[in-house]
Specification:
Elements (H helix, E strand, L loop, with lengths): L1 E2 L2 E2 L2 E6 L1 H4 L8 H16 L3 E6 L2 H5 L12 H23 L6 E6 L2 H4 L1 H16 L3 E6 L13 H12 L3 E6 L20 E2 L4 H5 L13 H12 L4 E6 L5 H6 L6 E3 L9 H8 L3 E7 L1 H10 L8 E5 L7 E5 L5 E6 L4 H7 L4 H7 L14 E3 L1
Parallel strand pairs: 3-4, 3-7, 4-6, 5-6, 7-9, 8-10, 11-13
Antiparallel strand pairs: 1-2, 9-10, 11-12, 13-14, 14-15
Amino acid sequence: MMTGNKKAKRIVIKCGSSLVSTDAGGVDNDYITRLSKVIAQVKEAGVEVVLVSSGAIACGFRLLGYKTRPKDIPSLQACAAVGQAALIDSYAQHFRPYKIPVGQVLLTLNDTSSRIAYLHAKNTFARLLELGALAVVNENDTVAVNEIKFGDNDALAAITAAICEADLVVIFSDVDGLYTANPHTNPDAKRLDTIDEITPEIFEMAGESISGVGTGGMASKLKAAGLVMQAGIDTIICEGKDPEVLVDIVNGKQVGSRFVAHFDHLVNSRKLWISVANKMSGRVYIDEGAERALRQKGSSLLAVGVKDFIGTFSAGDALMILNEHDELVARGLSRYSSEELSVVKGMNMDMISRVYPKLAHQPFIHRDELVVY
């Protein structure tokens, strides 16, 4: 299997809730039986695998007596607690005949927002892979609330791929790739086999999740693909109802839609962490000149180009950088506090040195800690 000019030796597979749970609610043991067989086959061929599995809530609500998925947060978190136990037990049982130990890794955004915690997670994944275990990753829905959620497991798969330094992400979906229109409603829709760049036109083709039991639609999958492309990691979005498709992927056959990473604009590991794993502490709005300097010259962001900002933050916190049209331009680590920025925004460096001598010659966000999209 080739990704760019590199053979894929480490794959992150993401399975959605609709695959691992039954229509009535509960673990789909038949599917996990087939999935475990295929993953064992791929691992036997020398490919390392990390599995990102949704489904905790979908597998748990029936076990707690609910007829349908509840809506209030405490009930959802209770369902996640019970469902995650059932789900990981099923994985452990089905991989046992292949002598593959299963390790459970539950994460929230807080667990990767800290650079130190991110590196600890990296070391844990590395050792699990070294020991031949299968890491089964999910968001820790029993404690995660909106402020510390990744948002969906497509984003979690992207972050996991970055942490693990994977070569390929395979997202099992309810459709066999990205189409020019919804193939379930438009007979003229055509699948895109290869995508080199995720443009606004590509995003317009993305529809919503068909299953109704998961949180991520095609748009979330495109965002995940875009994130890992920065790190030189390809992504394949394909239908996952038949997990045997993974064998075809490893053997280099055309499957689903492939998002091809380019190796001429890769970000380093620190910038990748800023890009995919950091919790944003504020939103900063910049003028056209600053946007042009970031995009065309690779410059640092100076306070003179800042028009406004939202949020309270300290030096070292991660920020979203947006243009005057509210479009995302970059993400980066601030070298100023929000209190300092409120005073110096719009000022050039000479003026800043008079107001805050300690910030003299210090850009607001240095280009080494800035990821431009």
